[in-house]
């Protein structure tokens, strides 16, 4: 006989406690004990509790390998068993008669009656689990998760996703917490009520004037939204949004003028000034291009029974000498030059030029919402997450650290999936590929590169602990299955994407894991948190356009400009949605914060502390810089970045 002490920690969240009966079986190298009830006088397993139990094993089970947790509803006299309720267990600590305590991290909801098997908390790749029972447990855990979390093809040409019909079908471990869910719906309800009271949600007609639009602009405005309202017509602000707005990933260095964008020296002389030319500025590296060509011919939506319109513009930008601003030089609203596709210039009539810039901003909305936001920051992170759940057991170290309408969105995603490549997802390579290493005032790049570097160093330290050589990477079957599944289900086996289907070196593994973490945290924050700031003053980011793009100059008017913008109800719908998507509904977990302590060893804990310290240094530097900016760039300040895609 042997006496063990069992310490159990229950989560603090609402509903984390349970009335169910819990027992444990201790699995050792010799045998497995019978279920040992964890039962003190009174109620056990209340939310936030840490409780001690004494259990006696009838036989020596040998060296402890596993802890099997059993949960079942209590039986009441005459009434029989009660309905089971959920329990969030943080961890078990098992102290044997001889030797130190063993920690078994859990951090899971246990729903209903059943059993769960836990390994001691030391992170292990598959080759490090030498005992057959430990290998068997890893395989059984993955088999169970692969049955629970299955893939489906949502749309042809899209990344695959979780095979569940509604949020209600998800298990508690991958749902919003109760508090977060309640906050989300409270925020949505209050915002909806405010718009309803103003009488705007049901108005299907045009805005009467730009002045009337201020009624909706006053809806929960932010300092950044007020800045957009004050400066939206200015060329410098228009251009700056390609660097630090909600879609800072499209601008690229212009090495030569595209043949289908025939800008001439005479067109841009007033902006470039005397003594220079387009060719000279191309050679200096001061010209940049934003090309929305992927939108060409895209299917458009119908709103209030009225078909909407789309453009596929090209925008040429000029970086002024010294510390001057980035400025737009020319805009063409289609990919086909000609008499019906004029090149709009800053010297044109005010309303011609403003309308052309507004068409570009509408293209930014469509590109951002379908690709930068939905595809790159939601659908692909879902692939990373689902592959992690299906291919990496809890004890694996990587598990621990880690206006165009629906049809138009679908078309865009299908097109972009054929163009998607690995360098786009790796920020340093993306910056080099687009040739924007030196453009001044590009805070998305500056802050993003700092965060990428911090994540990369953290990942490198963790990988160094568990993978002593390139061969150890190659030999990790679970790791390779994870990478292979992401390649096949997320990137549809497209070798042209450059996405790895296997990893051969520690260096490649560090880059890959850094890419996953960065895109699921910092990249999402950069392209999500500013959505409301950009669209609160709707003319700055119109979600749809009701009239076709202009085919000649000199015809634009204030009235025509307003008639092109989306109707009142569509404006309200989008602003409500983007306000919710920009506002984190509580229960925050900033980047580098790991309340679920899956790592029990000292080395990875030190790495986490170093990572947190590095992020704090980055935050101080960003806040210091922002004090000198008219419009602070806050979206990549580490305390404001969620650890994962959380909304």
TrEMBL record:
This is Arachidonate 15-lipoxygenase type B. Its cofactor is Fe cation. Ca(2+) 2 binds at residues 39-40. It comes from Cercocebus atys (Sooty mangabey). SMART domains: LH2. InterPro entries: LipOase, LipOase_C, LipOase_C_sf, LipOase_Fe_BS, LipOase_mml, PLAT/LH2_dom, PLAT/LH2_dom_sf, PLAT_LOX_verte. SUPFAM superfamilies: Lipase/lipooxygenase domain (PLAT/LH2 domain), Lipoxigenase. Belongs to the lipoxygenase family. The lineage of its organism: Eukaryota, Metazoa, Chordata, Craniata, Vertebrata. It is found in: Cytoplasm. Residues 124-647 form the Lipoxygenase domain.
């Amino acid at each position: 006989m042997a006496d063990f002490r069992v310490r159990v920690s229950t989560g603090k969240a609402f509903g984390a406690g349970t009335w169910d009966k819990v027992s444990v079986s201790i699995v050792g190298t010799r045998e497995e004990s019978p279920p040992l009830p964890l039962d003190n006088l009174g109620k056990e397993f209340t939310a936030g509790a840490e409780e001690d139990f004494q259990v006696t094993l009838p036989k020596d089970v040998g060296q402890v390998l596993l802890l099997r947790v059993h949960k079942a509803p209590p039986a009441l006299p005459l009434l029989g068993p009660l309905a089971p309720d959920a329990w969030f267990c943080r961890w078990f600590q098992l102290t044997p008669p001889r030797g130190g305590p063993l920690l078994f991290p859990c951090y899971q909801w246990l729903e209903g009656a059943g059993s769960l098997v836990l390994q001691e908390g030391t992170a292990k790749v598959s080759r490090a689990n030498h005992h057959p029972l430990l290998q068997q447990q890893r395989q059984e855990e993955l088999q169970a998760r692969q049955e629970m979390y299955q893939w489906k093809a949502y749309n042809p040409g899209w990344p695959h996703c979780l095979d569940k019909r509604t949020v209600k079908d998800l298990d508690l471990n991958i749902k919003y917490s109760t508090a977060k869910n309640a906050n989300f719906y409270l925020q949505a309800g209050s915002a909806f009520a405010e718009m309803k009271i103003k009488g705007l949600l049901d108005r299907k007609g045009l805005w009467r004037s730009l002045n009337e639009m201020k009624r909706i602009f006053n809806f929960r405005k932010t300092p950044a939204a007020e800045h957009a309202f004050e400066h939206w017509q200015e060329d410098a602000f228009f251009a700056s949004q390609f660097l630090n707005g909600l879609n800072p990933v499209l601008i690229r260095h212009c090495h030569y003028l595209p043949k289908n964008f025939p800008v001439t020296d005479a067109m841009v002389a007033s902006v470039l000034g005397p003594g220079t030319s387009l060719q000279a500025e191309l050679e200096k590296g001061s010209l940049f291009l934003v090309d929305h060509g992927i939108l060409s011919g895209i299917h458009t939506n119908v709103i209030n029974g009225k078909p909407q319109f789309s453009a596929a513009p090209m925008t040429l930008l000029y970086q002024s000498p010294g510390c001057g601003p980035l400025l737009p030089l020319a805009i063409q609203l289609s990919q086909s030059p000609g008499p019906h596709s004029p090149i709009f210039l800053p010297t044109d009539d005010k309303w011609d030029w403003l309308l052309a810039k507004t068409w570009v901003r509408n293209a930014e909305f469509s590109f951002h919402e379908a690709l930068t936001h939905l595809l790159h920051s939601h659908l692909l992170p879902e692939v990373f997450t689902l592959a992690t759940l299906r291919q990496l057991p809890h004890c694996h170290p990587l598990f621990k650290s880690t206006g165009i309408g629906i049809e138009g969105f679908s078309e865009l995603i299908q097109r972009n999936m054929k163009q998607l490549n690995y360098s786009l997802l790796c920020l340093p390579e993306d910056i080099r590929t687009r040739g924007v290493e030196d453009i001044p005032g590009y805070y998305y790049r500056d802050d993003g590169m700092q965060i990428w570097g911090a994540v990369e160093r953290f990942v490198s330290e963790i990988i160094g602990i568990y993978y002593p050589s390139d061969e150890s990477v190659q030999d990790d079957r679970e790791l390779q299955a994870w990478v292979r599944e992401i390649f096949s289900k997320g990137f549809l086996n497209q070798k042209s994407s450059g996405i790895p289907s296997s990893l051969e070196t520690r260096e490649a593994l560090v880059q890959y894991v850094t890419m996953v973490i960065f895109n699921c945290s910092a990249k999402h924050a950069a392209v999500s948190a500013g959505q409301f700031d950009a669209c609160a003053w709707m003319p700055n980011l119109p979600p749809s356009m009701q009239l076709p793009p202009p085919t000649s100059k000199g015809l634009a008017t204030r009235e025509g400009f307003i008639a092109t913008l989306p109707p009142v109800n569509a404006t309200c719908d989008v602003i409500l949605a983007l306000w919710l998507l920009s506002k984190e509904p509580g229960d925050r977990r900033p980047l580098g914060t790991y309340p679920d302590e899956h790592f029990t060893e000292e080395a990875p804990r030190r790495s986490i502390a170093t990572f947190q310290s590095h992020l704090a240094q980055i935050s101080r530097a960003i806040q210091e810089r922002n004090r000198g900016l008219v419009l602070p760039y806050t979206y990549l300040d580490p305390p404001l970045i969620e650890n994962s895609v959380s909304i």
